[in-house]
């Protein structure tokens, strides 16, 4: 069942199921007992512009971002209208750089009643930063977004899902900065990281004196003995919809909530085309014309809400 608040989230009877996640010389105690409604899924939007993505980072430098045409107002308004039409709430992981330049747009997300969380400030992967740099980037984004909404920022998602075995030190920094949940672990093998050994479904991390942090990993199914990604993004655009629907239904039927992520630029077929390698071109521009229709089908076929609602923080 969905639980009303953090005080009501309980561990698995007297015998708590725990495991030690030992990575990079750091031990984390993981309590895998978060009980959730398996039919209520989390819809998330990573609020970043088309030129800020990992697939273009080899040809687009952070210092040049202001030189590119921004299309975030157009695409985000389309997303908000679509969610309003379907009466669906979501979590928007907002990039601090975007919040700094488009505060009215971020306020509009809040006015629509959606949850606003942080995606960091500069879209740098955690493994590209040291602890001091990461904390500074995180705090800057929290301050910018919080000043716009007047609300506490409870959630975080790392750019490119860059909490991997060597960066789990980030969990304690998140908790120290007031973050209550994270959705940065992708339990797959990935060219930019991935965390195959992590649990596949929502779990609680015991950070001792820094409290507890809920982790909501990106959704996967098991195929041929491996975790197979079905969580959204390029996977949603490139896989046939019948496969996505079947995979998500299988997870829900097993009592597991799904988490889906999309980017506003993924519904923008007319965004500028930059010259890059075939792999990056496919991942970024592939099937853009089909994304909006697939999102509409998802919203009709499944029940979605914000992460805080799904995990019981709302």
Estimate percent helicity: 25-40%
Supply the CATH class.
Alpha Beta
How much strand?
15-25%
What is the 3D shape?
Answer: globular
Q: Would you count the extended β strands for me? A: 13
Number of helices: 10
* Overall number of domains: 1
Largest sheet: 6 strands, mixed
Report on this model:
By secondary structure, the chain is α/β, with parallel strands linked by helices. The chain has one domain (17-50, 70-308): Alpha-Beta Barrel (TIM Barrel), CATH 3.20.20. It is built from ten helices and 13 strands. The chain has a six-stranded mixed beta sheet with strand order 1-2-8-9-7-6. Strands 3, 4, 5, 12 and 13 form a five-stranded parallel beta sheet that branches. Residues 1-18 and 22-26 have low confidence and may be disordered.
